Amino acid sequence: MTDAIQEGIIEEFALFDDWLDKYDYLIELSDTLPTIDPKHKTEEYKIQGCQSSVWVDARMEDGKIYFAADSDAIITKGIVALLIRVMSGRTPKEVVEMELYFIDRIGLSENLSPTRSNGLVAMVKQMKMYALALNAQNTENRA
Hints:
Elements: H1 4-14, H2 19-29, E1 54-61, E2 64-71, H3 74-87, H4 92-97, H5 102-105, H6 114-142
Antiparallel strand pairs: 1-2
């Protein structure tokens, strides 16, 4: 199943011929990252498995999940901005079941260092865990 947001990202990255330009674009995207509340820049919100420091928070609003994040590494900040663009504003169930095919289609996974690649996997895993937890919490509140 295709996803309009992921398709848009694939089209954006198709405009660039080489990975240096794509890295520059990731750096530009870091400016679009929804700001995380400073009180969430703690160990509790830090993604384990990332070489750089990455903090991610999630909240529910009207049945949809919204993420905020920050990182001390600018390329990582751009990567998490892409993940948030794709995953925010969806139901927790959609986030959990989502196939993030844009990652392979734009060549991101093959052009990251092994440690950054591990960090990407850790970020996706944590965001899906937030969605699972918020979905369970949401279900309990309705019961």
